[in-house]
Each structure stands twice: as C-alpha cells, then as structure tokens.
Amino acid sequence: MPDKNTLLEKYTDAELLELIGSAIRRWRVEESLTQQELAEAAGINRSTLSMLENGSGTSAITLVQVMRVLGRLEVLSVFRKPVELSPMRVAEMEIMELKRRRRVRKKRKQTDDTARS
Q1: Phi/psi zone of residue 83: left (φ > 0), alpha (ψ -120 to 50 degrees), beta?
Q2: Stated pTM of the model
C-alpha cells in the first residue's frame, strides 16, 4: 500500500510550516476574523499568531489553541489514539465472523446442489 504522505515527504520542515500557516490564515479569513480577534480568542499574542501564519516556529500548544478557536481540530484527528478492543469484544467478533462464513458456505452448498439437480 502506498504511503499517503509521499507528497508531504518532499517538503522541507520550513515549507510544511508555511503550508500550515497558509491554511490557518485562509481559515481565519473565511471566519472573517482579524489576527487580533483570533489571537485574543485563542489566548495568545497577535505577534505569535502572525508568526504561525508566516510559517515561523511556534509551539504545538499555540497551534492547538488556534485550531480550537477556528473549529478545525478535526485536522488533528490523525493523531487520535486508536480504539483498543477488549479481548471479550475480539472473541465476539471472531464468533460473528465464523457464523457468517458458515452461512455463506451453507448458501453456496444449497446453490451448488440446486444447480446439479
């Protein structure tokens, strides 16, 4: 399976920061917010937001605060912890799969028997 991030791998760190900053600027403008308004809502300085939008280094917490105000936290969903299934749930799923396979085999056998008649 090809890596989904192949295109992103070709960018330098600075270029990736610029991409992030451009997206934040675009989302801010779509929300009709000034830098000052967004910065205040996120609890950061306007100059910090400006640095983020320009692709300059800022902290991860700044990014999260800004994304939260813009309603764009879904962008960070790739970092979500995968849901771990309990051993009991795994066993239940295996039993369901076995039952499904038996039904398919039974149907297939009935179809083959009907075709032979």
Answers
A1: beta
A2: 0.61
